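Worked Example 4.2. Consider the chain below.
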Amino acid sequence: MRTIIAVATLTFLLDQMSKYLVVHAMNLKELGRIDVWPPILNFRMAWNYGINFGLFSQDSPLTRWILIIVALAITVGVLWWVSRIVPNRWQKISAGVLVGGALGNVIDRLLYGAVADFLNMSCCGFDNPYAFNVADIAVFAGAFGLILFTSDKKPS
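Applying the procedure from the previous section yields the following structure tokens:
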């Protein structure tokens, strides 16, 4: 469990530090856009009140609290599941990455009422209209890792 907590903590801190640096220190919340390495990497301020790609994006307290509860339930579920198996190293890392990302977005919802998204990447003539953040990447990577590195071992 120490590996999971350490990875979750590092992921959470990386997410929150990147948001603070870009959104507040670089003042993206006021500027709205910063071209870093167009079109490959740009910062675009987007307050996401829903889930990925703006789904369920109603700016209402009910939606906010439902999404917080769902993220916390997923976190508890992943930790419960990992505690019931004999996780390999990659499962522990994947669980930690997912948990850290989920908690990073929960903190945003508690502090701002929405998730601070700012990463925008386009390439090869495709103009991506969506923004995301480090926590979003972590949730997807962690979930993918848990699927990819599934073990059949049971606790003894």
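The chain has a mean pLDDT of 91. The chain has five helices and three strands. Compare this with Example 4.1 before moving on.
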